[in-house]
Amino acid sequence: MPHIDFKCMICNQPVMADGAGSEHRNHCPACLCSVHVDDEPGDRAADCGGAMEPIGVWVKKNGEWALIHRCKVCGSLNHNRIAADDNPLKLMSIALKPLTSPPFPLEQLTDLLKS
After folding, report:
1. For residue 100, what pLDDT band results from cuts at 50, 70 and 90?
2. I want to staple 69 with a disulfide (CB 3.0 to 4.6 A). Which of 1, 51, 52, 86 is the partner?
3. How far apart are the first and last CA of the chain?
C-alpha cells in the first residue's frame, strides 16, 4: 500500500511522493494547490499556512515548467516545479487562461489584421 504524505487542504485528495519524479512533493497533483509553509524553497519558515492557489505557469530556459502559486491569505507569490504525475488538463487550463481571457477585446485583433 502506498505511503500517504499528506491530504490536500483544498480538495482533500491523498498526496503521495511516489510518482512525483523527485524526492520532494510540494503541491497536490490533482488540484495543483499548495500550502504557504516556505519563505525560501524548502526552509519551512513561513508562519502563514494559507492555501497557495496555482495562478500561472512559467517555462524555464531549459523547457521545464513551474507552477506559480499565490497565497490566498497574504498574497505571497511562489513557484514550484511541476511533478511527473500532475494533472495535465489542469496544467493546460492554467497555461491557456491568459489566451482565453485577454486584457483587451478580441475584436481588436480583427481590426489589427485588417490594417
Report:
1. confident
2. 52
3. 63
* Distance of alpha carbon 87 from alpha carbon 25, whole angstroms: 14
Strand-pairing partners, residue 59, are 65
Cell of 106: 478580441
pTM, two decimals, is: 0.80
CB-based contact 8:2 (threshold 8 Å): no
Q: What is the DSSP string of 58-95?
A: EE-TTS-EEEEEEETTT--EEEEE--TTS-HHHHHHHH
Query: In the chain, what are the domain boundaries?
Result: 6-114
Closest CA to 34 of 62, 2, 66: 66
DSSP for 3-50, written as a single string: PP-EE-TTT--EE-STTSSSS---S-TTT--EE---SSTT----S---
3-state SS, residue 53: strand
